[in-house]
Design a protein that fits this description.
Length: about 325
């Protein structure tokens, strides 16, 4: 359980908050009962499912008449604004909305924003985190917060994304470099491992007309929502999977990948290593992996152990583009 989750549980244990029929956004297995959980990150969703929680990737936004709303805050300010606006809509009038976040993730600043928007909050601090709550009145969230609850136009305006995703409002430099080195003659069945909001996939489909089918795979359901809006080519299908623990849906002639290497704020190179291993398992003999990664990450031993050969296609002292053959 995170420190913020522990602080939220503490608020209930001490009686500062009373149990009511509730929902929990960005859920984790805190010691609560009668909670409808939302968790869009596949590994955490599966963990809650194994713990027999009532969990979905996304709660309906049409209003649930809940007496209580609970939000575990993330490090992304705009995502927190959006989740608070969504939570306010799900609450019945007079319902209580409680938010819990780590001090290191900016919870104190967010508390001030919430207090200003809704006319004050009640607060407690514990475990290097804070919990703050207020009662729903007729004061609505700021318009900006409500706009963030839906897909937003980003980049050149032809892309849609939403807060909280990796590089949510711009094309990241690594992916921009990778597309410069993808061959235009890729054919057959292809996959985009960790597709995000779909930049690499849309580029491939526009350039490589020999592609018969492409699987867009991501562990973040919210990323797939954006990718499906950005990619209308019928050759693409979308899969919500944790490739570190769940098998890919097919075998591939080629895979493109900008692998994740963070869990929360912590650098976790093992995530990228596991993605490389998953790509090796999913490629057909002779299949190719095209990958971009920060050049300092320790991926070479994993490539050496899982591929027949690999080479560097580009290196700009920040990112390295690698082509590996199964």
């Amino acid at each position: 359980m995170s420190q913020a989750g522990r602080a939220l549980a503490h608020a209930f244990d001490t009686g500062a908050l009373a149990h009511r029929r509730a929902f929990l956004l960005r859920a984790e297995p805190v010691a609560l009962r009668d909670v409808d959980a939302e968790q869009s990150l596949r590994p955490e969703f599966l963990r809650l499912q194994r713990a027999r929680w009532n969990v979905v990737a996304r709660l309906g936004d049409d209003g649930g008449g809940y007496e209580q709303g609970l939000v575990l805050l993330t490090k992304h300010k705009e995502e927190n604004f959006a989740n608070i606006a969504r939570a306010w809509k799900l609450l019945a009038p007079g319902g209580v909305l409680a938010c819990a976040g780590a001090n290191d993730d900016g919870a104190a600043s967010l508390e001030k924003n919430v207090a200003k928007a809704f006319g004050g909050v009640t607060q407690l601090s514990k475990f290097h985190s804070r919990v703050f709550w207020f009662t729903k009145t007729n004061r609505e969230p700021p318009d900006y917060w409500r706009r963030l609850t839906s897909l937003q136009a980003v980049g050149d305006g032809t892309w849609l994304s939403q807060p909280g995703l990796f590089s949510w409002d711009r094309i990241d430099d690594g992916s921009a470099l990778l597309v410069q080195h993808l061959p235009p003659d890729l054919t057959g069945t292809v996959a985009d491992f960790g597709c995000g909001w779909g930049f690499l996939t849309r580029h491939l489909l526009a350039q490589a007309h020999g592609i018969v089918h492409i699987d867009c795979i991501d562990a973040e359901h919210r990323a797939l929502e954006a990718a499906e809006a950005n990619i209308t080519d019928p050759r693409a299908t979308f899969h919500w999977l944790d490739l570190t623990t769940e098998p890919a849906p097919a075998s591939y002639d080629a895979i493109v990948c900008n692998p994740p290497f963070h869990s929360g704020r912590a650098a976790t190179p093992s995530l990228g290593q596991q993605m490389i291993e998953a790509a090796a398992r999913a490629l057909k003999p002779g299949g190719q992996l095209f990958m971009v990664a920060n050049r300092g990450l320790p991926y070479e031993p994993t490539l050496k152990a899982n591929f027949t050969s690999f080479e560097t296609l580009a290196d700009n002292n920040k990112f390295r583009i690698t082509r590996a053959v199964r």
